[in-house]
Design brief:
Elements (H helix, E strand, L loop, with lengths): L17 H72 L1 H11 L1 H28 L5
Length: 135
């Protein structure tokens, strides 16, 4: 048996049938296309890896913000939970307290309403006097 590269090995031209040549061409085309697809796939993977790292950073920031707002909510809740509990336990007493608290405003509103009612009555009296009608 003679090995390629030995002095005894002769180079002979290779002959292909048309079918074999077509098969070799199609395989070469597939290789070129596969090579392009590999390059494209690597580019897509690099983009996806970049996107994944961006999303990881976004998640880390969101978690940090969530922890911040959870601490804020907890501190606010600790400040008002006793008041909320009192509201739930004593609605009647609370209603009285709020009514007492806003009494000056309510009285002023009632006074305005009474003045609006009295004003048309006073106008009617002046009209009756001006026409000489009895009041």
């Amino acid at each position: 048996m003679e090995l390629p590269g030995s002095a005894l090995w002769e180079r002979r031209p290779l002959y292909f049938t048309d079918e074999e040549a077509k098969k070799l061409k199609s395989l070469a085309r597939k290789y070129v296309n596969a090579d392009k697809q590999i390059v494209d796939s690597k580019k897509k993977m690099a983009k996806l890896e970049q996107r994944i790292s961006e999303l990881d950073e976004y998640i880390r920031n969101a978690n940090a913000e969530m922890n911040h707002w959870h601490r804020e909510y907890t501190s606010l809740w600790n400040e008002v939970k006793d008041f909320i509990g009192a509201i739930r336990k004593f609605p009647a007493r609370l209603r009285e307290f709020v009514a007492e608290l806003f009494r000056p405003e309510r009285e002023a509103a009632q006074q305005r309403e009474q003045e609006q009612i009295r004003q048309p009555q006073a106008q009617q009296r002046t009209m009756k006097k001006s026409y000489g009608l009895e009041i």
